[in-house]
Write a structure and sequence with these properties.
The structure holds four protein chains of four kinds.
Chain A (H helix, E strand, L loop, with lengths): L4 H33 E2 L2 E2 L6 H8 L1 H33 L5 H13 L2 H12 L5 H8 L14 H26 L3 H9 L4 H30 L2 H6 L11 H11 L3 H32 L1
Antiparallel strand pairs in A: 1-2
Helix pairs in contact in A: 1-12, 2-12, 3-4, 3-7, 3-9, 4-7, 7-9, 9-12, 11-12
Chain B lengths: L1 H30 L18 H9 L2 H32 L5 H13 L6 H10 L6 H9 L2 H12 L3 H9 L4 H12 L1 H17 L2 H6 L8 H8 L8 H33 L3
Chain C lengths: L1 H22 L2 E7 L7 H15 L3 E7 L3 H13 L6 E5 L3 H6 L3 E2 L8 H7 L4 H4 L3 E2 L2 E2 L2 E13 H6 L11 H11 L1 E2 L5 E7 L6 H10 L18 H15 L11 H9 L3 E7 L3 H7 L4 E4 L9 E11 L4 H14 L2 H11 L12 H9 L5 H5 L3 E2 L7 H16 L5 H16 L4
Parallel strand pairs in C: 1-2, 1-3, 9-10, 12-13
Antiparallel strand pairs in C: 3-12, 4-12, 5-6, 7-10, 7-11, 7-12, 8-9
Helix pairs in contact in C: 2-14, 17-18
Chain lengths: ~290, ~270, ~425, ~325
């Protein structure tokens, strides 16, 4: 007698499910619990809202949340627009486009943490490349990472550099599936390039854009590697991001309980994004 | 008019391409010249390999490299096996609670392990897996992204192929291995490359969970080695960076065509 | 026959068990940080190798763990994971936090012989300040430093200043700094007078400025801070004025990590930095440079800094004895002398400077003694309970003032208020 | 002859609706049985249950007198040819053919022997190293057959194997499959919706409708003695005319209807459809459609009135109430 399909199905699912529960669902539950029961690295017997009370008093948090949202709100659209442009270029009849594709994609495979040191050189005042270039045109330059009004944007630039090429691949894949007859039809209509893009290419890339958008948003909340090298969230938290702040609280301040509260905040943000994603998936079904 | 926009567009494309490649170009420049030329450009700067030697001596790169390769491979192998099994169950088997299980798995797409470093660290400490390959790998072995991707691909495999294999006497695992896996090859390739480049470069979680050279991967090694606290020496850092990304870079340059193509075939879009 | 076999096995087993402690080496794991340049791991490994040669029954696994914070995280992580380190070099200011976590034991409980007690009393008193709590010694100085002033003698000459007379007061620093600041034809500065780093460890640099005003930042118990004391506000105003008023220093924050490079490329004539950088600067400077004590306000002063040895609670008696041996070895005058010469960190005891090697080195290279000479003016580094959080409060306040986001009063009042809230439960 | 395969009381429900509803039949060894019916009649589901690809909700399947319900498909000792051919696109023709032998760990030498003989039987020798993607429809079909042949399984299930081929090829393959079956003494269950295939190939036809058997018999019986109006209207091209008359329906095959000048049924012509060797005219009689096949080209204008008739002996009668055949009251229609 063969095992029932039901049991077989569960057996196949089991290993993945166990690990997912152990490293995704269980920690989520425990984080929420710790946010109520935790004190420093310890557990208390009774639940309290003390950690959440500190959340309200935490002056840094507001800044960190603002930074995180700005970070997402700017890096995501810019990366996507660049990614579309790159995909169009690489998909066109340009010569040596293979080289170009490699160039665009290279940042994706470079570790953020090593390359951050090189970006540190670009950004460094006095001796850094950017200010030296500015000096050529007689400009005194900026303190890219040391000026609170610039530091976050400097981080964003590196993030965009890192992400755009990765998203390009998705668009490239999507572009190749577009029926060329549509372009022939447009050519017969004598449509301009811009019209073709706006009326044909862009709408057909919409499902990809939605998919990339959600992924980029999620990425924006977890991409903090370069902070470890470039700014450590400074000066004065002007470039601090939520996940880095969680890391600081947990591993520099040994305040696991407050880190748990911050994680809950991040989870709430992600749940909202998740709902967005379900909406997106539903939309995608209509496209298919 | 049209021609001008064409040239402008081409020019912009190459300009951005240059900027995108520039950090790597700079790293090569800084690495092969003495450190006084790290912040200065001169055509006649003397060439040297000392920076590589110095970097090599300052950090145990071979060990880091072995760690990174081992971790990346453990994760990849685990992901491929676990995700294949789960994806098949979700794509082709009828069982109670399938929809719910799928939703439960998809949760991980949003709640990535990076966010749960604190609790996962505690769990692994409880299992005495801190500072081991498995400690770095475990939270990533079951990848919702992989399961999702493979499930979509498996659903496109004609059911008759599976039926034929069953009639020819294949077991359940035999069917998965002989029918579904070969047919999903592009998806596996695309997923593998994404996974490898992700975990080769992953930093935050390994930083938290590794303590020593026993398990410390290249990224964490590089962050210690190149930490600004110790005073930045770009020449040596660049050399170290090149050493650490070299293998991946070469792998990418060799496979980039297949990589992009498999992405397209896999329908990741 | 069968019984015999069992007997033999049992006896053999028992013998092995008895023999084991005598045969097996004591294994020690220690973490250590490096916060300044150079291949310090090599030097540490060399010392460890010497120690193992001298003590063949002890194996030491010395792990380079990154910066001070990393080292602390890793050491505590090892503790939690059940594979603990027996001793570690960690930030001298971690002491309160480590005690709160009940992770460390005082050296007083471990030293027994008079000789060992004498050793514990052999260090410079200023270096012990951060390590002593409630009259017990928890931290023994190892890679210790003070902040010193590096200056470029060539640029001094160029500016018409006496290269043997670096600034000794705040006013002089501002004046000479102005003379040393050079602008190009566009009016852009191409060479700065002075730089004080304000990332990574801004509170440390600030500790120097406040000490020079005769004010400490916290009490010995680490449960009170004086962030908004008037002299502290003055100190921060002076730091800010160097940039905004005197124009001898760039405004905004100055990166700790790249400052040495700035100095080496002659983008700044003066830098304040750890003595730990001395050897690297000496090796790489292509110009004549000098090292001096920090200039004074109402007094001279610098905080000490760097790493101390700590003994962890989670260890057997043998391991603890072996740990003590290792600490004694690594802080012995001979090793301290070697360490100081190789790195620029100071010799931790007066005896170290009597070791001929270091004595000769100091004679041939006087800057090597500046950190030691400055010790008489030194104070403890900012160290409190919940040190990480409290430190960040001060760091943020300093950075917000230097980058022009708020005034010194506002920023320091706010920092003090928050520090009070954190520390009140430790009073 | 004892039955080789017997299906009894077979039921299968999807969402409460019966796809297969109490089906019983027996197949002898070496017999070619066609499961015929319109789409959705349950013929493919029945086949899949015999193969073990689906589990019945009730009933039993015996092969060689033993119930195989608890056996997995691979253990039932049968082979199957799919409508889509189900060739593995990543394997060469050769690998596709020996796929099952490998899965069953048949010795290499034996594999080669069986491969060789099968390949010769279906003429695939020049294509052995090609991938399925490079093959034509007919060649793919042959690979599927070869895979079935090498298995040496005595029972072969075929699920509309020819429906993806063009008309001419289909005719060729029909006879080829039939001769293969005879040569190998295979027992074949052949699912099709094409009555021509069933009529021309099968020893026995089982006609299914809505999950139940309408009739099971030799092909000629289907033509000569349809048991229900459904069978009557399913077999034949065009199908049998059914004319309502009081409590019976009269069935006449179009080929038995002839055009007469007098003493026939008055009908009105709707259209005439010229098909080369013959013309099919469609007429109406009191609300019933009557088709007639006439030789050669006949052009009769639409709307004109003509007379038709047939021999009373070629009439079939069905009860209006049950739709079942009744063998009383011949020659019911008065031909004036």
């Amino acid at each position: 007698m063969q095992l029932s399909r039901q049991i077989q199905a569960w057996l196949l699912l089991l290993p993945a499910l166990c690990l997912l529960v152990a490293f995704t669902h269980y920690p989520v539950v425990k984080t929420v619990a710790r946010s109520f029961f935790g004190f420093g690295v310890q557990w208390e017997d009774a639940a309290s809202l003390d950690n959440y009370r500190y959340l309200l008093e935490d002056e840094v948090l507001g800044q960190v949340l603002y930074n995180s949202f700005m970070y997402a709100a700017i890096t995501v659209p810019v990366s996507i627009v660049l990614a579309i442009a790159m995909a169009l270029w690489v998909n066109s009849k340009m010569r040596y486009k293979g080289v170009l594709r490699t160039a665009y994609f290279t940042p994706t495979i470079l570790p953020m943490i090593s390359v951050a040191n090189i970006w540190l050189f670009f950004y460094s005042p006095e001796i850094g490349l950017l200010n030296k270039l500015l000096a050529l045109v007689g400009h005194s330059g900026y303190n890219w990472l040391g000026d609170p009004s610039l530091s976050l944007y400097s981080l964003m630039a590196m993030t965009i550099w890192k992400e755009a090429g990765f998203f390009m691949i998705f668009y490239l894949a999507a572009l190749q599936t577009i029926d060329t007859n549509l372009y022939h039809a447009a050519a017969i209509e004598n449509a301009s390039k811009w019209t073709v893009f706006r009326r044909i290419t862009f709408p057909l890339l919409m499902p990809t854009t939605l998919f990339v958008l959600v992924n980029a948003l999620l990425n924006a909340f977890k991409l903090v590697d370069h902070l470890f090298i470039l700014t450590k969230g400074g000066p004065n938290n002007s470039s601090n991001l939520l996940l880095y702040y969680i890391f600081e609280n947990a591993f520099s301040f040994f305040d696991t309980a407050y880190a748990a509260v911050l994680t809950v905040v991040l989870l709430v943000i992600l749940v909202v994004l998740a709902l967005l994603q379900f909406g997106v998936i539903e939309k995608r079904v209509h496209y298919r | 008019m049209n021609r001008i926009t064409h040239y402008l567009s081409t020019g912009l494309a190459w300009f951005i391409g240059f900027i995108w490649l520039f950090p790597l170009i700079y790293a090569v420049w800084a690495a092969i010249h003495p450190s006084e030329f790290a912040t200065r450009f001169s055509l006649f700067a003397p060439l040297t390999l000392d920076n590589f030697k110095e970097a090599w001596n300052q950090a145990p790169f071979p060990r880091y490299m072995i760690n990174t390769i081992a971790i990346t491979m453990i994760i990849l192998a685990g992901q491929l096996v676990l995700c294949t099994l789960a994806a098949y169950a979700l794509a082709r088997m009828q069982f109670k609670g399938r929809g719910f299980m799928f939703a439960l798995i998809l949760m991980q797409l949003m709640v990535v392990p990076e966010i749960l470093i604190v609790e996962n660290y505690q769990t692994l400490a409880g299992l005495s897996l801190i500072d081991t390959y498995w400690g770095v790998a475990l939270p990533y072995l079951a990848s919702a992204f992989g399961i999702f991707l493979l499930r979509q691909t498996f659903k496109t495999v004609p059911e008759d192929l599976e039926n034929a294999a069953r009639i020819e006497g294949c077991s359940l695992l035999g069917i998965i291995w002989k029918v579904y896996v070969p047919l999903a090859k592009p998806t596996y390739l695309a997923f593998s490359l994404v996974s490898i480049s992700y975990h080769w470069n992953n930093f935050l979680w390994p930083l938290v969970v590794t303590n020593t050279e026993n398990s410390r991967p290249l990224t964490v090694g590089m962050s210690i080695f190149g930490a600004p606290e110790s005073g930045v020496d770009w020449s040596i850092i660049s050399a170290g960076t090149l050493i650490s990304v070299g293998p991946l870079l070469i792998l990418f340059l060799i496979f980039q065509r297949q990589f992009v193509q498999s992405f397209m075939q896999a329908g990741i879009k | 026959m069968w019984m015999n076999k069992v007997k033999t096995t049992v006896i053999a087993g028992a013998l092995c068990a008895l023999a084991a402690p005598a045969m097996a080496n004591t294994e020690l794991t220690m973490f250590y940080p490096v916060a300044v340049g150079g291949a310090l791991t090599k030097i540490v490994n060399g010392i460890i190798a010497d120690f193992e040669t001298a003590n063949p029954d002890i194996d030491v696994n010395a792990i380079y763990a990154g910066n001070y914070n990393d080292a602390r995280v890793k050491a505590l992580a090892a503790l939690q994971s059940g594979d603990p380190a027996q001793l570690s070099v960690m930030f001298s200011i971690d002491v309160h936090e480590l005690m709160d976590l009940d992770a460390i034991v005082p050296f007083d409980d471990v030293v027994t012989t008079d000789e060992e007690k004498a050793w514990l009393g052999s260090f410079y008193p200023a270096l012990m300040e951060n390590g002593v709590v409630d009259g017990k010694t928890y931290g023994v100085p190892f890679q210790r430093s003070t902040i010193v002033m590096y200056y470029n003698k060539d640029l001094f000459r160029e500016a018409g200043l006496d290269p043997e007379k670096p600034p000794t007061t705040w006013d002089e620093l501002a004046e000479m700094g102005a003379a040393l600041t050079k602008k190009n034809s566009d009016g852009n500065v191409e060479q700065w007078g002075a730089m004080i780093p304000s990332t990574a460890y801004p509170y440390w640099m600030f500790g120097a400025l406040t000490k020079q005003q005769g004010q400490v930042l916290m009490n010995q118990d680490g449960n009170e801070t004086y962030f908004n004391a008037p002299k502290v506000v003055d100190a921060l105003n002076y730091w800010k004025d160097l940039g905004s008023k005197h124009g001898v220093m760039p405004e905004g924050t100055i990166e700790w990590g790249t400052l040495r490079q700035n100095f080496l490329e002659q983008k700044t004539a003066i830098m304040w930095h750890s003595t730990g950088n001395l050897t690297t600067v000496k090796k790489n400077a292509e110009f004549d440079f000098g090292v001096a004590m920090l200039p004074g306000g109402s007094a001279l002063g610098s905080p000490t800094g760097g790493g101390n040895f700590y003994l962890f609670k989670d260890a057997t008696d043998e391991e603890r004895a072996a740990s003590l041996k290792l600490v004694q070895f690594m802080t012995s005058p001979e090793q301290a002398a070697l360490w100081s010469k190789e790195t620029g960190y100071m010799g931790v005891s007066p005896a170290a400077y009597e070791v001929p090697e270091l004595a000769e080195y100091v004679e041939s290279f006087p800057p090597a003694a500046i950190a030691r000479d400055q010790l008489q003016h030194a104070t403890a580094e900012l160290s409190t309970h919940q040190a990480g959080r409290v430190r960040k409060l001060l760091d943020d306040a300093i950075q917000s003032v230097l980058s022009g986001q708020s005034t010194s009063e506002e920023a320091l009042n706010s920092a003090q208020k928050q520090a009070d809230r954190i520390l009140s439960r430790y009073r | 002859m004892s039955s080789f395969l017997s299906v009894s009381g077979l039921c299968r429900y999807y969402d409460g609706a019966a796809a297969v509803d109490n089906i019983n039949f027996e197949v002898s060894e070496g017999e070619f049985v066609a499961l015929l019916g319109p789409s959705g009649c349950g013929k493919s589901t029945t086949l899949k249950m015999i193969a073990g690809l689906e589990q019945p909700d009730a009933g039993d399947i015996n092969i060689n007198g033993k119930s195989v319900l608890s056996e997995s498909p691979g253990k039932r000792n049968l082979s199957m040819v799919f409508q889509s051919y189900a060739l593995f696109p990543h394997l060469s023709v050769k690998e596709n053919i020996v796929f099952g032998l490998k899965a069953r760990s048949v010795p290499k030498a034996e594999q080669k022997k069986r491969l060789d003989s099968a390949v010769d039987m279906v003429d695939l020798r020049p294509h052995l190293d090609k991938k399925p993607g490079q093959l034509s429809g007919g060649q793919s079909q042959r690979v599927a057959l070869a895979r079935s042949i090498v298995s040496n399984a005595p029972l072969c299930l075929m699920d509309e194997p020819l429906s993806n081929l063009d008309t001419k090829l289909r005719a060729d393959m029909r006879s080829e499959i039939r001769s293969l079956q005879k040569k190998l003494k295979l027992t074949v269950i052949y699912v099709t919706h094409d009555q021509v295939e069933a009529m021309s190939m099968a020893d026995k036809i089982i006609l299914l409708n809505k999950g139940s058997i309408e009739q099971a018999a030799e092909p000629e019986i289907f033509y000569e003695k349809p048991e229900t109006t459904f069978v009557a209207s399913f077999i034949g091209h065009p199908p049998m005319n059914l004319i309502s008359c009081e409590d019976v329906q009269i069935g006449v095959r179009p080929e038995h209807v002839s055009l007469v000048d007098e003493s026939g049924l008055n009908v009105v012509v709707n259209e005439s459809d010229y098909q080369g060797s013959e013309t099919i005219i469609t007429t109406t009689y009191q609300g019933s459609i009557i088709r007639a096949i006439l030789e050669g080209k006949q052009s009769i204008p639409s709307g004109s009135s003509i007379k038709v008739r047939w021999e009373p002996a070629s009439e079939h009668h069905f009860s209006t109430k049950t739709s079942k055949r009744v063998d009383t009251r011949p020659g019911l229609l008065p031909f004036q």
